[in-house]
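Task card 7
Instruction: Convert sequence to structure tokens.
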Amino acid sequence: MFFKESEEEVYLSIDIFSKYNMQDIAYFDIETTGFDKENDKIILISLGHFLENGKFIVKQYFNETALQEEQILSRFCDDLNNMKIWCSYNGIAFDEPFIRERLTRNKIWTKLPSNHIDLYRHIRPYYKQLGINRCNLKSVEKYVGIERKDKIDGGLSIELYNEYIKTRDEKIKKKILLHNYEDVLNLPKIFNILNKIDNDKSIIREDAVTEKQVRFLNYLLKKNKIVLNNEVERISKRAASRMIDSILKGNKDVEELHNIMKNSY
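Output:
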């Protein structure tokens, strides 16, 4: 297993850093040999987090021989250190279930973070209004002014890895590492977009709740004396329908209702 640790300056406003408790978040991304989590393997994991001095550190675990998946997963889990929050870009759909499956296959039993901030799911309902052409990571990065050194994509990294296994060319290895490194390094900077969405009430999600749903939902909340921290005006139609149905069935559990709202992304 190849391990690399790098330290960087990541410039964010104190307000954003504090608002999203960014010092408590583990930022991560993976590269794999394919998209089948049952049969393909993880070839690289990058894990980033802020140090007490404000610096951002990225740890990379690289599967050099295609037979070291258990080693990189074990080291990654040790360094994750029972953190309660992790952050990715589209990781709820891909990275997290892939990691969970590969942990099971390698008989590694560990407790992963319970809260997953998937930046893709937060931005997707708003990206057109924000003027972002596509909702892929590189388009979102350009929107916040990020210029990458890396020039490849995740699909190409699979081909490059297969070539590296055959040739052991260090230049190829560095390309793969750089791609995954920048995927993680840039995640904290994307919180600038979340902050803009949160603060600008004129930015309405594409699948926004209807006025009729808002009126009825507020009526039900008031009638049942349910107080929520989040604004129901910012949720999706689907989440509103689920909340209304849940309350009508007698559910007054604030935590459950908050989970419905959170999962509206």
